[in-house]
Structure formats: structure tokens, C-alpha cells
Design goal:
Blueprint lengths: L4 H12 L5 H8 L5 H6 L2 H15 L4 E7 L9 E7 L5 H9 L4 E10 L7 E9 L5 H6 L1 H12 L10 H5 L4 H16 L6 H9 L1
Antiparallel strand pairs: 1-2, 2-4, 3-4
Helix pairs in contact: 1-2, 1-4
Length: 203
């Protein structure tokens, strides 16, 4: 990270957006991040942060990204990064994350300040996932992120069936259909408890 923050930010913007947006985006983000984030952020990770933040500027309440850290204190670790314009406590977030089968090793939060937006908080979770599983999970990255958004928004269930999106070819809609079948069996007073059925489907 020998290059200055301004240089790294301009490079990320050039990789992320068309030329006519470069100056506007630079003015938006040059002072938006904390000193710590400006010191560490670069390359594809900074591009990922900008993509999430631009989605918030476009009207989203929450955006997230799943990635392997290339630099920092824990290179090679799998991370989930959540950007939100409203307050989310750890007790709000951890059950969502664990429903996908992800343990959390540690977490940190940083604030992002953008004009005409409420305060944005970036939560970064280092996940307890073996490196041998990273490739499989990253191949399902888009599906996992899409369902994470829905679960955080209360538009999808929060149980272990969400793990199927990370480990199979099912998407969020497929999992919701499966969840509805499990609920229907419960209404029919199946001799098998819903928790057992979910465990069998996942494990």
C-alpha cells in the first residue's frame, strides 16, 4: 500500500465506473471512510466496497459482500461484509449469519459518511470456514448474498435450511419452497418434528 489513498481510490473508481462518473465518485468517497479504512483499503476489496455503497446510494437499505481477504492481518480468510443505513446489533446479525452455517471468528465495525445519506455502518465478519471450502462458497457467492439480503430484510426464513444455498444448487426461492413444505408437514401433524426434518435435509 505504498501508493497514497487518493491514488488507490482513483484506481478503484476507474475499475468500477464509466469515465463520466469518475470525478463525482472521487469527490463522494475521498473523505467518506475512516482513517483506518483509508490506510488499508485497495484493489478489488475497495472496488467491492464501492459497489455496495453505490447500491445504498441508489436506495438499498442493506448490502453485503462475501470475499477472501488478500491483505491485512488475516490474509486468506473468508469474510462477510455488511453495509447498512440503519442500526444492526450483533444479536441481530449473528443468527442470520449462523443460519448459513457460518461461524464468526471476530468482527469489527467502521462508519462511512456520505453526503445526503444517513450514517452508514460497515460490519466485517471473519468467518470460521475451512480454506478447502472457500472455492465452493465463492462459486455460490451471488446466491448466498441475495438470500442474505432477503433474510436481513425479513423476507426469507432464518433457519438452517439457508445452508443449502451455500452447499447445493438451490437458490433462495427454492429454499423458501422447501421451508413451506416443512411447515405444511408440521401442520399435518407429521410424526417427525420440523427441526429434525430440517436437520436431515441439510446434513
Amino acid at each position: 500500500l505504498a501508493r497514497s489513498w487518493n491514488e488507490r481510490l482513483r484506481e478503484a473508481i476507474e475499475d468500477f465506473a464509466p469515465a463520466e462518473q469518475h470525478e463525482e465518485l472521487f469527490a463522494t468517497y475521498v473523505e467518506a471512510f475512516t482513517e483506518e479504512h483509508r490506510r488499508r483499503a485497495a484493489g478489488e476489496r475497495l472496488v467491492g466496497d464501492l459497489a455496495c455503497l453505490e447500491a445504498l446510494r441508489a436506495g438499498s437499505d442493506l448490502e453485503c459482500d462475501l470475499f477472501v481477504s488478500r491483505t491485512g492481518d488475516h490474509p486468506g480468510s473468508l469474510n462477510l461484509r455488511v453495509f447498512t443505513t440503519h442500526s444492526l446489533t450483533l444479536s441481530d446479525q449473528l443468527p442470520v449469519i449462523s443460519s448459513f452455517g457460518f461461524g464468526v471468528v471476530d468482527e469489527y465495525s467502521r462508519h462511512v459518511r456520505i453526503a445526503k445519506l444517513p450514517g452508514i455502518t460497515m460490519h466485517n465478519f471473519r468467518l470460521d470456514v475451512r480454506r478447502g471450502q472457500h472455492r465452493q462458497l465463492l462459486a455460490r457467492r451471488n446466491e448466498v448474498i441475495a438470500l442474505l439480503r432477503q433474510v436481513f430484510a425479513g423476507q426469507a426464513g432464518r433457519d438452517r435450511l439457508n445452508r443449502l444455498v451455500a452447499t447445493t444448487n438451490l437458490n433462495g426461492r427454492d429454499v423458501e419452497v422447501l421451508r413451506a413444505y416443512v411447515a405444511y408437514l408440521h401442520q399435518l401433524r407429521s410424526e417427525f418434528q420440523a427441526r429434525l426434518i430440517r436437520r436431515v435435509l441439510v446434513d
